[in-house]
Amino acid sequence: MKTLGKKIRLLRHQKSWSQEDVAKRLEISIPAFSKIETGITDVNLSRLEQISKLFDMSVVQLLTFNDAESQEKYTSEVEELNKKVTEREKEVIDLQKRIIELYEELRKAKH
């Protein structure tokens, strides 16, 4: 349930709401809401429905929230890293060519 709490905290931050704001909307105490966010308290279905309505989403959306975003972020990070690796490989190849050229120049200069 800790991941659910993290999702709820992320949604709360996106709305710029404090724990107090959300606790009031859910008609629970701030410590009770804090325990939901930290995963100390398991969330029952009725509370889950209440929280999902608060964030204008279905229970399924709430439970799967951030999964797609994480995947998209991961994919874009991997693509960016692949580009960097490709650039570095080209740099290494260019440096290897330059080393070979310099070696050939030294060899010719000795003879």
TrEMBL record:
DNA-binding is among the record's keywords: yes
Keywords: Coiled coil, DNA-binding
Recorded superkingdom: Bacteria
Keyword Coiled coil: yes
SMART domains recorded: HTH_XRE
MF terms (GO), sorted A to Z: DNA binding
Ranges of residues in domain HTH cro/C1-type: 8-62
Coiled coil: 71-105
PANTHER family: DNA-BIDING PHAGE PROTEIN (PTHR46558:SF4), TRACRIPTIONAL REGULATORY PROTEIN-RELATED-RELATED (PTHR46558)
Protein name, per record: Helix-turn-helix domain-containing protein
Organism: Daejeonella lutea
